[in-house]
Specification:
single chain, mainly beta, Lipocalin, 2 helices, 14 strands, 12% helix
């Protein structure tokens, strides 16, 4: 009887160990969905529109989907942001349409967003880290009402190289670094008059048709992202990300822009695969 009990206990113990190991190794997420709250500051100096430097503190929302296999990663995402623009040298300017009439304070609002798609292939793999290299296509659009007493906008369709590196710190913690470098872009900007005037076409169509090809020699827009992820449970996690990007385009007049941004995201894991 004792021998039988020992055999049963030993068998149960072995099954428990095998089950725990199987749970650790057999299921890995094949896809993830992420929703992020964005908070950032932008510095803009566009000599095509104004000699003043404008600062924008903005809030936004990001949505993205990633499909993950053993060697490949696909990503699709979009985001929208908005905030008020202030030129410190001008401050909050008060205007009066006519003498004795009502006055108003001019604080331009900026609206900007992004849509993107990308693919990466694994180029390095160690026990606790992986590296992925690939490319992405993204379109970024900017619009402001009231900048230099007129509207202001810019659109950039970029083709960029991207490298990502992941480091696993135990089962629940992960650090990721990303470097994005656009190689070519199609960029549309407002004319010096800040007015798009083509009566036979809509303003949006006329504006986008003025897009010009730019290479890395005249158009630079590098971006660096650092993020930390904590796995809350089997299907969810939290992520904190910091990103920095800097843009310079010299045609027809110089524009320089930089963004500092933080993001807090909730991540949902699904389409689990056995490995």
């Amino acid at each position: 009887m004792k021998t039988t009990l020992k055999l049963v206990a030993g068998l149960c113990f072995a099954l428990a160990i095998a089950s725990a190991r199987a749970q650790d190794s057999q299921e890995k997420p094949g896809a993830e969905f992420r929703i992020s709250y964005l908070r950032g500051t932008q510095k803009l100096h566009d000599l095509q529109a104004s000699p003043m430097i404008y600062y924008t503190t903005y809030n936004g929302l990001n949505l993205d989907y990633k499909r993950i296999t053993e060697k490949n990663r696909w990503e699709f995402g979009l985001e929208a942001k908005t905030g008020n623009m202030i030129a410190p040298e001008l401050g909050e300017r008060e205007f009066q349409i006519e003498e004795g009439g009502d006055s108003f304070v001019l604080i331009p609002s900026q609206y900007f967003g992004e849509i993107r798609a990308g693919y990466q292939r694994q180029v390095s793999s160690k026990s606790k880290s992986q590296g992925y290299l690939g490319g992405m296509i993204r379109d970024e659009f900017y619009y402001a009402d009231g900048l230099a007493m007129n509207t202001w906008s810019m659109n950039s369709l970029e083709f960029a190289a991207r490298y990502s590196h992941f480091v696993e710190l135990g089962k629940k913690h992960r650090i990721e670094g990303d470097v994005i470098l656009p190689l070519v872009a199609f960029t549309a900007r407002m004319p010096y008059s800040n007015v798009v005037s083509q009566p036979e076409k809509s303003q949006a169509k006329a504006f986008l048709e003025e897009s010009e090809f730019a290479s890395i020699g005249t158009y630079q827009h590098p971006e660096i992202q650092l993020s930390y992820r904590y796995h809350l449970a089997h299907r969810s996690g939290l992520e904190f990300r910091y990103s920095l990007d800097w843009l310079h385009y010299s045609e027809p007049r110089s524009i320089k822009k930089s963004n500092h941004e933080i993001a807090l995201a909730w991540v949902y894991f699904f389409q689990f695969a056995h490995h």
